[in-house]
Amino acid sequence: MSDLRIDTTADGHRLALPDGSASLRLVPRLGLALPRYHFHIGRVVHAAQELALFRVQTTLLLGNDHTGQAELADLQLAPGLGAAQQTAALGALIAAAQALMQQHPQDFGDALVAELPGWRDAAGASPFWQALGARFYAGDPAEAQARLGAAWRSHLAALLPRQTIYLSFLGAAAEASLARADDRALPALAALRAAGFQRPVHARIDDGGPVLVWRAPG
């Protein structure tokens, strides 16, 4: 902790390695000013013995389950770092953020959330977005996010259905990409998993990227 640079702003605490190779932002409480929405990943079972039918369906339900939890955001890495170096650099920052949380539980609570961008194909397109979000918002999601920042997904949520969605209705490509991190985010995913973040049961509402959670011990 003593070797890190920690800058506190209205948006949270920016943690950076001394050599400038990596940084991230620790946000004390998520969604208090503007709700942040995610899809909860669930399941329903359809069974009929007479028809020899047993089918498990993955479901998506819009909600803001992580309101009030702390968040790791804006993970940034210097160009030219290899995958192992990226994972190591982010791992040091994640450990520092976890330690800061445990030192000040009154400020951060007991859970830490991290979102990763969802998988994209060789053309840079998100199958999940094309199957779901694009049906409700005809604009360019990258442009909207650049203009609105993290608030973009809060505005998008107002356009999406509140009813349970069966993932199978979205097609095979969207099913395969749900909660799958983009290839460029794999070093960050490795660092988060090594730091004790659990397998995702929530996904981003735009590109279906994984939302991982770490809960402080005790």
Radius of gyration from the CA trace? 18 Å
User: Based on CA inertia axes, which overall geometry fits?
Assistant: globular
**Can you give the helix content as a percent range?**
25-40%
Structural class: alpha+beta
Q: How many alpha or pi helices?
A: 7
Our estimate of the beta-strand percent is 25-35%
Q: Return the average pLDDT rounded to an integer.
A: 94
- H and E order: EEEEEEHHEHHHEHHEE
How are the strands of the largest sheet arranged?
A: 1-2-3-6-7-10-9-4-5-8
Q: Report how far the terminal alpha carbons are from each other.
A: 21 Å
Spans of 5+ residues with little confidence (pLDDT < 50)?
none
> What kind of sheet is the major sheet?
10 strands, mixed
Q: Count the strands?
A: 10
EC number: 2.3.1.109
Organism: Roseateles hydrophilus
Protein name: Arginine N-succinyltransferase
Keywords: Acyltransferase, Transferase
What does this structure look like?
35% of the residues are buried. The chain is an alpha+beta fold. The two termini are 21 Å apart. The protein is built from seven helices and ten strands. The model has no long low-confidence stretch (mean pLDDT 94). Helix 1 (83-103) crosses helix 7. It has a ten-stranded mixed β-sheet, with helices on one face. This is Arginine N-succinyltransferase. Its EC number is 2.3.1.109.
